[in-house]
């Protein structure tokens, strides 16, 4: 009999996100290969990274509407240059969840697209920074991988 048992560590949320242009890294099984130095580790405000991949059925089969959103604080020239470098690029992403699992989303054939939106509240105490979004249609779910770093 197959069972799904309660995990000892069942924390929600994500801790880190790394973004890479397609073709720079790839996954074979649970191993990541390629040049990890060509990616971007993006600091995100705690508890702002969200990951969803709901399935959608069509006449050609099931695909997944992958969506990763997060908030990275601050709006300065350095952050703006990274956002501009990644804007509308086809990318893949590595996420580290709160249970210390690494997850690889997107592929070279079914990449995610990056977008960033500068936002700020009206009050001085409101956060200012970029809401980032990685989204795309994939034919396979994101995969758990070994620690690539």
Structure description:
The structure is a single chain. The protein is mainly beta and 149 residues long. The chain has one domain (14-145). Helices cover 7% and strands 50% of the residues. It has 1 helix and 12 strands; from the N terminus they run E-E-E-E-E-E-E-H-E-E-E-E-E. It has one helix spanning 77-86, and strands at residues 14-21, 25-28, 31-34, 40-42, 50-52, 55-58, 61-73, 90-97, 102-105, 112-120, 128-138, 143-145. The strands form 2 sheets. Strands 1, 4, 5, 6, 7, 8, 9, 10, 11 and 12 form a 10-stranded antiparallel β-sheet that branches. It has a two-stranded antiparallel ribbon with strand order 2-3. Strand 6 (55-58) and strand 7 (61-73) form a beta hairpin. The longest helix is centred in the middle third of the chain and has 10 residues, at 77-86. The protein is globular and about 55 Å long.
Largest sheet: 10 strands, antiparallel
Element order: H for helix, E for strand? EEEEEEEHEEEEE
* Share in helix: under 10%
Distance between the termini: 36 Å
Number of helices: 1
The strand count comes to: 12
Structural class: mainly beta
Give the overall pLDDT as a whole number. Answer: 90
Number of domains: 1
Proportion of residues in extended strands = over 45%
Rough outline:
globular
CA-based gyration radius: 16 Å
Low-confidence stretches: none
């Amino acid at each position: 009999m197959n069972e799904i048992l309660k995990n000892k560590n069942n924390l929600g949320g994500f801790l880190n996100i790394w973004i890479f242009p397609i073709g720079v890294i790839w996954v074979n099984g649970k191993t990541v290969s390629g040049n990890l130095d060509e990616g971007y580790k993006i600091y995100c405000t705690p508890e702002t990274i969200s990951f969803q991949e709901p399935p959608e059925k069509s006449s050609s089969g099931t695909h997944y509407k992958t969506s990763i959103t997060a908030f990275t604080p601050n709006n300065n020239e350095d952050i703006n240059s990274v956002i501009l470098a990644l804007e509308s690029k086809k990318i893949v992403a590595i996420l580290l969840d709160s249970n210390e699992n690494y997850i690889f989303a997107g592929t070279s054939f079914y990449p995610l697209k990056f977008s960033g939106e500068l936002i700020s509240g009206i009050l001085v105490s409101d956060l200012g920074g970029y809401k980032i979004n990685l989204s795309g249609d994939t034919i396979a779910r994101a995969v758990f991988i070994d620690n690539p770093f």
